[in-house]
Amino acid sequence: MKTLMQCEDCKNFFEDWKEFENHPCRKNVKETQTKEIAVREATLALIEWYKENASAVSCGKMRKKVLWDKISNKLKGYGYTYTSEQVAGRWKSLLRAYKNIRDHNNKSGNSAKSYEFEKELDEIFAADPAVTPKFTLETKPSTSSEVTPCSSKTNQFTETSGIEKCVICLDKPPNCVYADCGHLVTCMECASRILDCPVCREAIIQKIKVFK
Fold it and tell me: How does DSSP assign the chain, residue by residue?
């Protein structure tokens, strides 16, 4: 009795292994797997090289643009053609997904979720207050009598403008307002390292320096 192999995609049967491996469906699967492996390897390299330069970036000795250029060139040396802009975009996606997982797992009652690169990113950010703030502020709810036109962002700015120290580094005075939420709780240096507001967790569209 002959052994037949069936393709899960096209449902065709094959007697010969080489014929099965070389038919279009299998080629597509192999190409997809190869791409996935390449993306994972490039991502792990990106994380490792960021880790090596994290201290220089956090203290201001190296601008992130310089780091992205450096990582892009190193990736090209390994056969990966990613521009510095693509490297920066990939890093933002990694950081956002990592923070979402941490926020989800830190909420009581939620079932624990895992992230593909969580272990690697934990080594960089597990104790980083820019990713996990030392404490989280809660804005006080406004009553209907306190609400005026365009008051949402104005009230948020007012409620947090009295804070004397950045809620992340607990050292410098806060001088950065986030759009769209309007919170003023961090210094510009710490703000440059985060994507979401540490108060309301709303995505930061723009960071505006203020002078007091």
Answer: ----EE-TTT--EES-HHHHHHSHHHHHHHHHHHHHHHHHHHHHHHHHHHHHHHHHHHTTSS-HHHHHHHHHHHHHHTT----HHHHHHHHHHHHHHHHHHHHHHHSTTPPP---TTHHHHHHHHTT-TTTS-SS---PPPPPGGG--TTHHHHHHHHHHTT--S-TTTSSSPP-EEEETT--EEE-HHHHTT-SB-TTT-PBPSEEEE---
**Could you read off the pLDDT of 35-64 as tens digits, one per residue?**
666 788 888 999 999 989 888 887 788 888
Distance (Å, whole) CA 35 – CA 41: 10
What pLDDT was estimated at residue 67? 92
Q: Where in the chain is the domain with CATH 3.30.40.10?
A: 144-209
Low-confidence ranges of the chain (pLDDT < 70): 1-3, 26-37, 126-162, 212
pLDDT recorded at residue 150: 38
- Between the alpha carbon of residue 64 and those of residues 18, 91, 97, 121, 187, the distances in Å are 48, 11, 19, 17, 17
CATH of domain 144-209: 3.30.40.10
Say if CB 185 and CB 167 are below 8 A apart: yes
- Model confidence over 144-173: pLDDT tens digits? 333 333 344 545 555 555 678 888 888 889
C-alpha 84/C-alpha 5 separation (Å) is 45
